[in-house]
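Narrative of accomplishments. A recurring question from our advisory board has been how the design workflow behaves on a single, concrete structure rather than in aggregate. To address it, we present the structure tokens for one chain from the evaluation set, followed by the sequence designed for it. No filtering or post-editing was applied between the two.
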């Protein structure tokens, strides 16, 4: 493939080439993104944990855009300074002009990081460059490399939280979660050379369920393919897909980092539209808003369960924890005293099971 041949050429010529690659280090996590959109993760000491995560966009059995066969640089991968959000940002874009094969798409990618955060949020903006509408299945191609070792690791999926957990004994844990939608498929298999074939990608992306556990039994290790339900895109239309990726010394540390990433995702998006169906939580606008001293926050739970309600400032630092307990089904209200907060914009975030809702409040003194 193009990427392999380029690397071999450099090695044979014994010269140094400056690739269009960008990196940032949060202090707890290093993120590398290559010129073709390959994402790699490292822990402290530059120990690699993720060989590759890359975008997949499929429209049919012979039409899947992927890193190996199709990706060609449009915008070079660069470190954005100053970042548009967070403390670190990488940006680049690719299209299918290398192969010229369908689907014709443009994929812009942004990787965001926060100081001392063991996580990153990656946004993929997928634009339809075809002349007619497409139904795009969008997912990731993931190859773990825990503690710089392949093989005999496991991929677990928690259907309640939507977390994909890559783990092997006491080695570093890696987690990923689709933030902007719900996974429709998760399929893992043992790596083999040349696995990146459109028809196989398409079948894996349309597996139709999420494997609860895949245990690698060879030194090659697993490849995991994710997908969400197809998105209809008219010519020139685009969709944003967000994934959180996190590392941790164990499962709980990884989950804590993924939870912090979800909090940042809410802040990054601002106030999302609320779906008030019977199965979803509902978070109302605080009243009064703007607030000077005290305000009321109301919400509704579809079932009994554990509830977290926290307040964050505009840079994502937690300033108050209002609820952290099991609560009954139905309507609830919480009084929040803002007396100790300076004027500014704040976000309050409600978590219940795998659902997250957030609203803005304005404090005026």
């Amino acid at each position: 493939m193009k990427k392999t041949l380029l690397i071999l050429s450099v090695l044979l010529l014994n010269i140094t080439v400056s690739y269009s690659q960008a990196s940032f280090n949060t202090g707890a996590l290093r993120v590398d993104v290559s010129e073709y959109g390959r994402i790699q993760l490292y822990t402290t000491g530059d120990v690699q944990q993720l060989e590759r995560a890359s975008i997949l966009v499929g429209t049919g059995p012979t039409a899947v855009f992927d890193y190996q066969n199709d990706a060609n640089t449009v915008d070079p991968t660069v470190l954005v300074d100053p970042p548009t959000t967070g403390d670190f940002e990488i940006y680049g874009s690719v299209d299918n002009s290398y192969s010229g094969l369908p689907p014709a798409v443009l994929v812009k990618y942004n990787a965001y990081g926060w100081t001392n955060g063991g996580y990153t949020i990656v946004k993929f903006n997928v634009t339809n460059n075809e002349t007619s509408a497409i139904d795009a299945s969008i997912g990731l191609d993931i190859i773990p490399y825990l503690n710089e070792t392949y093989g005999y690791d496991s991929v677990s999926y928690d259907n309640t939280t939507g977390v994909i957990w890559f783990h092997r004994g006491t080695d570093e844990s890696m987690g990923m979660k689709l933030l902007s939608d719900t996974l429709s498929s998760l399929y893992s298999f043992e790596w083999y050379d040349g696995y990146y074939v459109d028809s196989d990608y398409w079948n894996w992306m349309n597996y139709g369920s999420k494997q609860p556990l895949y245990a690698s039994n060879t030194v090659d290790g697993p490849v995991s393919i994710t997908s969400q339900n197809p998105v209809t895109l008219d010519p020139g239309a685009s969709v944003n897909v967000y994934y959180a990726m996190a590392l941790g010394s164990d499962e709980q540390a990884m989950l804590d980092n993924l939870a912090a990433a979800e909090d940042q995702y809410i802040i990054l998006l601002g106030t999302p539209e609320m779906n008030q169906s019977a199965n979803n939580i509902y978070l109302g606008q605080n009243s009064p808003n703007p607030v000077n001293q005290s305000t009321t926050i109301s919400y509704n739970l579809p079932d009994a369960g554990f509830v977290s309600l926290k307040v964050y400032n505009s840079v994502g630092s937690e300033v108050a924890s209002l609820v952290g307990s099991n609560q009954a089904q139905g309507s609830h209200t919480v009084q929040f005293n803002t007396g100790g907060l300076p004027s500014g914009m704040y976000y309050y975030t409600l978590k219940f099971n795998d659902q997250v809702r957030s609203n803005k409040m304005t404090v005026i003194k």
